[in-house]
Specification:
alpha/beta, eight-stranded mixed sheet, 10 strands, elongated, disordered C terminus, cytoplasm, Signal recognition particle receptor FtsY, SR_rcpt_FtsY, P-loop_NTPase, EC 3.6.5.4
């Protein structure tokens, strides 16, 4: 846990270093609040969240001398308040055999590796997992998923380049049902530049699976690349037009991202944020914790981080 928190803090360093520029020992006057609001918006928290945070400071701390640690601690609390309602641990429904998850997202967001990491994570929890290499237009995606399948020791349903993704999904669902598999993870194409074709393909995958199980898919998880900033907001909008997105996974919080985008997404869409990724290793994908994310986002001294980590957390929706 401590190791992952350290990597999360490092991954959010771009945002925390910007915010740190206004965190000096000073009177919290209107000028300081305006500077802080500008930095919150620059960190991609979005104007609505920035305004809410600033109004909280204005009503409770305005005109007072404050230290950087005091501002960071208060800011982390305010950000966590926005994030806590969406920090929902993803748990396969044990009444579904399998629990079918359609994983969607544009090409390049780390969708395929995220599926592989999820396979590793849930097999380590003792669940049986099967994968479907449904991004059949990218041979590299199929090969990549097969590598991850071998690492996690789980079966991968794959076809030839350009194979029918809906047929593969149906085959995977049928085989997973017969095997009593707990979790079926289905990769999909992400050619958002051709929205009409993508909509048709996703609709077909769902339609064909429902010939076997009318309740499938049970979850639709959208993978987003944190380095794209506000573009992630547009991706959520578009994919929600295509399918019923049930939750988000945010990847590539590796130091190049403006991590406030997760806060903006939480404020605007209220969709569950199930997991975040901070690197390429299997263990670098973890359940999303509002408290840890807020602490990492605002940064601060080691002493402050330690005090915050020791603070009892009532939020049990995300278990690290």
């Amino acid at each position: 846990m401590a190791g992952f928190f350290s990597r999360l803090k490092q991954g959010l360093s771009r945002s925390s270093s910007r915010l740190g520029a206004v965190f000096t020992h000073r009177k919290l006057d209107e000028t300081a609040l305006e500077e802080l609001e500008d930095e919150l918006i620059a960190a991609d928290l979005g104007p609505a969240v920035a305004e809410r945070v600033i109004e909280s400071f204005r009503s409770t701390r305005f005109g007072k001398d404050v230290t950087s640690d005091e501002i960071r601690e208060t800011l982390a609390t305010e950000i966590a308040r926005v994030l806590e309602p969406v920090a929902v641990h993803f748990e396969p429904d044990p009444t579904k055999k399998p629990h079918v998850v359609l994983v969607i997202g544009v090409n390049g967001v780390g969708k395929t590796t995220t599926i592989g990491k999820m396979a590793r994570l849930y097999t380590e929890e003792g669940k049986s997992v099967m994968l479907v290499a449904g991004d059949t237009f990218r041979a590299a995606a199929v090969e990549q998923l097969e590598v991850w399948g071998k690492r996690a020791n789980v079966p991968v349903i794959a076809g030839k380049h350009g194979a029918d993704a809906a047929g593969l999904a149906y085959d995977g669902l049928k085989r997973a049902t017969e095997a009593g598999t707990d979790l079926l993870l289905i990769d999909t194409a992400g050619r958002l530049h051709n929205k009409g074709a993508l909509m048709e393909e996703l609709a077909k995958v769902i339609r064909v699976m429902r010939k076997f199980d009318e309740t499938a898919p049970h979850s639709v998880l959208l993978v987003l690349d944190a380095t794209t900033g506000q573009n992630a907001v547009e991706q959520v909008r578009v994919f929600r037009e295509l399918v019923n997105v049930t939750g988000l996974i945010v990847t590539k919080l590796d130091g190049s991202a403006r991590g406030g985008i997760v806060v903006a997404l939480a404020e605007q869409f209220k969709l569950p944020v199930h997991m975040v990724g901070v690197g390429e290793q299997a263990e670098d994908l973890r359940p999303f914790s509002a408290q840890d994310y807020a602490k990492g986002l605002v940064g601060g001294s080691n002493d402050l981080a330690s005090r915050l980590m020791e603070t009892p957390v009532e939020d049990t929706s995300a278990v690290e």
